[in-house]
Amino acid sequence: MTTLISSSSGDKIAGNVKSTPVDFTSVKINDNFWQPRIDTARQKTLPEMYTQMEKAGYFNPAQRNWEKGADPVPYVFWESDISKWLEAASYSLATQPDPALEALVDRAIAFMVSLQQPDGYLNLYFTEVEPDKRWANLLEWHELYCAGHLIEAAVAHFNATGKRHLLDPVCRYADYIGTVFGREPGQMRGYCGHEEIELALVKLYRVTAEKRYLRLAEYFIEERGQTPHYFDIETIARGADPAKFKHETYEYNQSHLPVREQTEVLGHAVRQMYLVCAMVDLAKELQDDSLLRACENLWKHLTSKRMYVTGGIGPSADNEGFTSDYDLPNLTAYAETCAAIGLVFWNHRLLQLDADSRYADLMELALFNGVLSGTSLDGLSFFYVNPLASQGNHHRQPWFNCACCPPNLARLFMSLGQYIYGLTETGDILVHLYIQGSAEIQAGNRPVTIRQQANYPWDGQIELEVAVEEPAEFGLRLRIPGWSKNATLAVNGQEISPVVEKGYAVINRRWENGDKVTLSLEITAHLVYAHPAVTENTGRAALQRGPVVYCLEAADNKLPLDQLVIPSNPGLQSEFDSDLLGGVVVLKGTAATPDSAGWSDDLYRVTPASRKPQPFTAIPYYAWDQREPGEMRVWVRTQD
Amino acid sequence: MTTLISSSSGDKIAGNVKSTPVDFTSVKINDNFWQPRIDTARQKTLPEMYTQMEKAGYFNPAQRNWEKGADPVPYVFWESDISKWLEAASYSLATQPDPALEALVDRAIAFMVSLQQPDGYLNLYFTEVEPDKRWANLLEWHELYCAGHLIEAAVAHFNATGKRHLLDPVCRYADYIGTVFGREPGQMRGYCGHEEIELALVKLYRVTAEKRYLRLAEYFIEERGQTPHYFDIETIARGADPAKFKHETYEYNQSHLPVREQTEVLGHAVRQMYLVCAMVDLAKELQDDSLLRACENLWKHLTSKRMYVTGGIGPSADNEGFTSDYDLPNLTAYAETCAAIGLVFWNHRLLQLDADSRYADLMELALFNGVLSGTSLDGLSFFYVNPLASQGNHHRQPWFNCACCPPNLARLFMSLGQYIYGLTETGDILVHLYIQGSAEIQAGNRPVTIRQQANYPWDGQIELEVAVEEPAEFGLRLRIPGWSKNATLAVNGQEISPVVEKGYAVINRRWENGDKVTLSLEITAHLVYAHPAVTENTGRAALQRGPVVYCLEAADNKLPLDQLVIPSNPGLQSEFDSDLLGGVVVLKGTAATPDSAGWSDDLYRVTPASRKPQPFTAIPYYAWDQREPGEMRVWVRTQD
Known about the structure:
Chain A is of the alpha+beta class. Chain A has helices at 34-55, 61-64, 78-95, 99-114, 125-128, 143-161, 167-180, 197-208, 211-223, 230-237, 269-285, 289-305, 337-353, 357-371, 405-414; strands at 19-21, 27-29, 389-390, 421-424, 429-431, 437-443, 446-454, 461-468, 472-479, 487-491, 494-496, 500-501, 504-511, 515-521, 525-530, 540-545, 548-553, 565-566, 573-577, 584-594, 604-605, 611-620, 632-633, 636-638.
C-alpha cells in the first residue's frame, strides 16, 4: 500500500490552483448522511421557520405591537431572518419545485418589497419603527447588515427562479446605498458595524455584472478602520461618548484598524467571518493578493490559537466572540452556530483562491461538528451556542429572539452541493468533500459527470466514476484529508501514486467513459490533544474519527464523566449503530475510574483512591443532547 | 518514641466526658498567631464596623431614607448587625476596658432600647418601617432571628459590664415573645424561618436562671416542622400560595420535618448550624439524649458527605447552603464565613457533651481555614463567600449590604479564649486547642493556672505548665489532633504513655506547682484526597500541614495553576517566612507541567505534550487574596 504524501504548502499566490465552485444546482446528493438532513431542512425546517416568523409577528406590524424606540425588542435585525429564510427557500426551489413553498416565498417578498421607499430605501425596522433614525447608528443597528442579507436573498431568488421581483427592488436599494455612502462630497463615509453587505454586494455584482456593486463592496472594506474613525464621528454626532461604547473597543467589529493591518481574529466571531469572506471575494475579483495575504495571516492565527477542536469559534458570550489566545473554555464555550457556518463560508472562499486541503479540511471539520451540532436530527430545534461540555442543562430550542442560526443552517444545507466540487482555471476538477451523489460539470466545454459512491464519514472507501461523452484529458484532483494517516488511490483497480499538491492528489489522464477511481482513506479513531497553553484541556484529550469529533454523554456512561480517565491507548472500537441518532458510528473503549469500594465514610484521606477499569461509549459530538438530558464532555480526562 | 493511639470513639452518651468551657475572661492569649488577629479585631474591625453601620444609616432613620415596604432594602435583618457588633464589643470590654468603645456601646444600646414598645416588643424594622407587619411573615422576615441576636448581645453586655440596661429590656421582650408564641389558646404556634433565637434563649436562661426562657427555646425547637405546618398556615393567611415559596421546600430552613427526624444537613447552612447549636444546648440543659443523637447523625452526614476540606459548608449561592451529597464545587463554592463560624459554635457545643477530639479537630479546621479566610490580615475587609478556587476575580470587601459575616467574625475572635479549655464534671481540665497563653481555672474549688507555650500551628511542640497553690490531683486531658500521625508526651521531661480517650490523652496525677507537660505533635505537610464521589476533585489533591489547608496562588506560581500536576510525593518543604502575610509557613515542592517547547504552531495534535519539572509554592488558604490578584487553587491536579 502506498501512502500519498502531500507536498508542502506553497507560498506563491501566483502559483495557487484557483477554482470556481460547481453550483449546487449541478450537484445531486444522495447519501445516507447529508441527504436526510437536507430533506429535513426542506420539509421541516423551512415551513416551521416561516411559521415561527409569522408567530413572532415578523410580517404583521399590528401583531408585533412595537413601541417606538423599544430597542432591542423587536430587534433591528429581525428582517435578516426573513432574508436568510428567503435565501434558503430559493435554494430549495432551485433544485426542487414546490408551489406551496414558492407561494410563501412570494408572500415574504411582497411584504419586504412593500416597505421600499420612493428613494429606494428598503428596511423593515427603520421604516416601520424608527423612520427618523435612518443611518443614525451604523455602529450598532445592523441597517446595512440587513441590506446585505436582503441582497443575498435576491441573488438566490433570481438564480433559482429567474424572476426579478426581488432582485430589481434590491438593485434599486443598492444603488441608493451607493449614493449615500462613499468618499464623494455629501456622502457619508460610513460602513456597517456588522459586516455582511460587503460579501453580498460581490454576489450582486456577480449576478448583475454591474461593477458599481463591486466598487461599493470595495469601498466598505477599504474604509473600515480608517481614521478619523467613522464610529467616533457618528457616536459624537448623536450626542454620545465614543469611550462608552459597550464593547469598549472597535475590535468588536474589526474596525480597530484598516483590514490589511489586522493580524488577529478579534471581537464578534460572525462579524469576523463575514469580513474575511468579503476580503477573499474582493481578493478574487480584484486580483488583490494583499487582501488574501491578510486573510492567510488571520487564518493562521485562528487555527493555531483560537479555534475549538470542533471548528467552533468565539469562546465568549460577552462579545459572542474571541477573547485571548488559547482561551477555549468548554462548559461556557459560546461557539455560535453562525460563526462555524461563517468558517465554512470563509474556507470555501479561500479554497477557490488556493486549492489547499487545509481549507477543505477545516470546512469539513466545521461542517461535521460545530455546524451540524446546531440542529437536531428532526430539523426543528437548534443550538445557538455550542458548548464542548455540559452539565445537562443546555438544550436545543425551536426558536430564538435573535434567530440568526436556524435560517443560516437552512441556507447552508440547501446549498451544500456547491461545497463538494470545484473547477480550476485550467479545467481540472477538484473534489473537496466526499459525499455520495453526482455532479454535472462543464470542464472546458466538455460535459463531465462525476458519480461518487461513499458511506462517508463512517467509511473511508470512496468510488468516483467519470462519465464523459468522449474521452477527455483533464486533471481530477482529490483531497487527501489531513486526518488520514494512510490513503491509497486506484484507477480502474490499478493502484496509482500521483503527485499530491497541497493535499490534493492530482490524477492527470485521458478519461474514458466509466473510468473508476477508488480512494481508500484510513479512518481510525484516535485521541487528540490540545496545545499545552490551552489550560482548559491540560490532562484531557478529545476523540476523533475521520472528520467527526466525538463526545461522551451521560446517556451512555452512567457515572460522572470527569471520573473517567482514558489511557493513551484505550483500545477504541468503532461500531456502526443504525438505530442510534440517525445512524452513527459509536466509539467504545476502556477507561479507568476511581474505585470507591475501598473508602470508608471519610470524605477526605491521605491516600488516593485506587482505580478500576470502566468501559465507555462515545458518540459524534454533533448528535449530542437528543436523548435523556445529562452530562456531556468532548474533552475527557487522560493519564497523559 | 511512643505514639499515642486513640481508643475508638465510644457509643454511650451516658459514658461521655462532659464539660463546660472555661470562659474567655479567664483565658489570656498571647501567641503570635491569634493575638495579633484579636488585637486587630478590637482596634480596627470594631470601630470600623460601627462607622460602616453609621454610614449605612443603621442608627439614623432619616438618613436611611426608608420607603415603606421597600424590601429587601433596608433589610429586615440589619439590626442583627448592631446586635452582633454589641456582642463583640461587649466581649472586648469584658477583657479590656475601653471608655471610647463603651461610649459607642452605650449609644447603640440607647438606640435599640428606644425602639421598645409598651408591650415589650423590640425590633427596628417592624417598628420603624412596617409596624403593621409584626409577626406577619416568620418564614422570611427574620423577626425572631433579630430578637435572638439582641438577646445574645444583652447577655454578653451584662456578663461584661454587670449593667442591666440592655438585659432588662431584652428580658421584657423575651417575656412578651413568650406570651405571643406557644401552644396555649390565643398563642401563635410559630417559630422563626431563620433559627437563632433558640440558642439565644438558652443563653438568657443560663444568665438569668429563668426556666421560662429555656422552655420557650424548647417550644421553638419542638414545634419546628410539626404539622399542620405553621409556614403553610401563615402563608395562606397573608393570601399567598405555600407552593410558591421561593426556596421550594422547607428544607431551606430545616422545618420540613420535626428536628429529631432530620438525618441530613439541608438548606441554608447558617440556619442549619444555628439550629443544631440550639439542639445541643437543649440536649445539655434538658439531658435529652435524643436531641444529641439527632445532632450526631447530622454531624456524620455533614462530615462524610457535605463539607469542604477547609471546614467551609454550603456549596450553593442559590440557597446559601447545601445541595446534594459530594457536590462540592470549588470555583463556585459559597461556603459562607458565617456558616463556618456556625460550625465552630456547633462543634464547641458538641464537645461539651462529648469530649471527642473529632469535634475539636473540626472546630480547629474551620477556625484555621474556612473562618479565618473570611477576614484580611488588617481586619478591614471580608469574604462573605469563600471559594476554594478563583480565577482572580474574587476579593474581600470592606462591608456588605447583608453584613452578617464581619460582626460574626468579630464576636468569635473577641471570645476565642473560651474555645481553648474545658472543665469536666469531675474536675479534669480539657485542652482543646493549642494557643499560647494562660488560663485561670477553678478545678473543683482549686485554683489552677495553665500556662501554654506554643508556636502553633507552625510548630507541634507544646509546653504546658501547671501552677497550683498546693499539690492537687486531677486529670489533664490533652487533645491529640487527628491529623498528627505521631504524638509524644512527657511530664517534667519524662516520657509517658497515658491512655487516650476519644482522642484526648488523659494525664491523671497529683500535680505539683510548676509541673511541665510537653506535647510533641508531628506536623508534616501532606496531600489530602477527596472521596471519589466528589467529582470536582477527582484527579486532584489538596495540601495540608497540621490544621492548616494550603492553596496555590498566582502570586507565587507564574503559570496557569491547572497546568501543574503534583506527584504523589512532591518533596514538600516547609519554610517559615516571617515577612509574608503576617508570618506563615509556606510549602515548596516540585510538580510537573506540560512542556510546550516541542509543539509547533498546531493547536491540536495526536500526541500529548511531554512534561517538565516545575517548582511550586503553596501558602495557607486563609491568607489568600492579599497580594496581586490572580488564580487560586486549593485542589491541585495530581498524577493519581
